[in-house]
Design brief:
Blueprint (H helix, E strand, L loop, with lengths): L1 E4 L6 H7 L3 E5 L14 E8 L9 E10 L4 E7 L1 E6 L2 E9 L11 E6 L4 H7 L15 H6 L2 E6 L3 H4 L5 E8 L5
Parallel strand pairs: 1-7, 4-9, 5-10, 6-10
Antiparallel strand pairs: 2-9, 3-4, 3-8, 4-5, 6-7, 8-10
């Protein structure tokens, strides 16, 4: 069950200072080896690309993480992040991954594979303007047709290293990371 979506510009100052260092690589040009992770895999975040959301494209934001079970470093490409409502575990709040704020110090996350309805989730996610498109329930197909990019931060060379395996999914947090 989806309870609400969040769009928060609290890290706007971080975005603007990093704006010159971020470029958007077409997803199809990414060459990192892919892997799969089990749902519920515990991760520790080491780094995050930053970047800005887009109303016209699907943006994946790289997180450099450690898989806590096997102590291996990998990249998680995520378009969405979420937090659970402890009072109602079936309810989640989703936000664009661009809202993640490293300065909050929240580094522990749970990995979830891309849900089958991510197109609808992405369509429901607030636009860069902070508004939710109310016709989103019919936009999942439109969302799939949007071009996909990966936010690449030129100042974080580790996030660009093609040797790190990558996985695509949603990072779930116990605390609000935005």
């Amino acid at each position: 069950m989806i309870s609400r979506f969040s769009s928060n510009n609290s890290c706007e100052s971080n975005r603007s200072s990093n704006a010159q260092q971020i470029y958007y690589q077409p997803f199809a040009d990414s060459v990192s080896p892919e892997l799969t992770l089990d749902s519920g895999t515990k991760l520790t975040i080491l780094g995050y690309s930053g970047g800005s959301p887009s109303d016209t494209a699907k943006i994946y934001f790289p997180f450099l993480v450690i898989n806590n079970r096997i102590r291996d470093t990998l990249r998680v490409l995520s378009a969405l992040i979420s937090t659970n409502n402890e009072e109602n575990p079936l309810s989640e709040t989703f936000s664009p991954a661009s809202a993640y704020d490293m300065n909050k110090g929240i580094r522990e996350a749970i990995f979830e594979p891309v849900p089958g309805n991510q197109g609808m989730l992405m369509a429901l996610t607030p636009l860069a303007s902070g508004k939710v498109d109310t016709s989103a329930f019919m936009l999942s197909e439109k969302q799939k047709k949007k071009p996909a990019y990966i936010a690449v931060n030129k100042s974080l060379s580790l996030l660009q290293d093609p040797h790190f395996k990558r996985v695509i999914g949603v990072l779930r947090f116990k605390e609000i990371p935005w």
